[in-house]
Amino acid sequence: MLPPTFRSRPRLAAAAMALAMALAACSTGSTPAPSAAASAAAGSTAPVAAGAAVTIQDFAFSPASLTVAAGTTVTWTNQDTAGHTVTADDGSFASKTIETGGTFSQTFSTPGTYAYHCAVHPNMKATIVVQ
Ligand SMILES: [Cu+2]
What we know:
By secondary structure, the protein is α/β, with parallel strands linked by helices. It is about 30% helix and about 30% strand. The longest helix has 27 residues, at about 5-30. The chain is globular, with a radius of gyration of 29 Å. The site of copper (II) ion has 5 residues, from loops.
């Protein structure tokens, strides 16, 4: 058996170690949070990726309004049971009928707001905003 002095010292050391580790964990735990938020904010202000997607489902375009950077290619995918079109209100672009599972892509190089609809179902309306 060890004398009492030898027993208490390791306990104190262990307690000090645990306290130090708790403090270290606390300080390292709080630092990454602001930097992660900063990088997320930087990511949202960075140029949008070259491709963007719109889903056609339940007789609607989703999202109904999509904002992209100039030069972005938008791809529509028809996940509906009916055929639809992507037709610009001003006639600047128009797809043929997109059947179920089909896609249509259009590249937007000029900033502006592009309203479009489905020629088969004129109540289906949506907008692409190009910045
Ligand atoms: Cu339609």
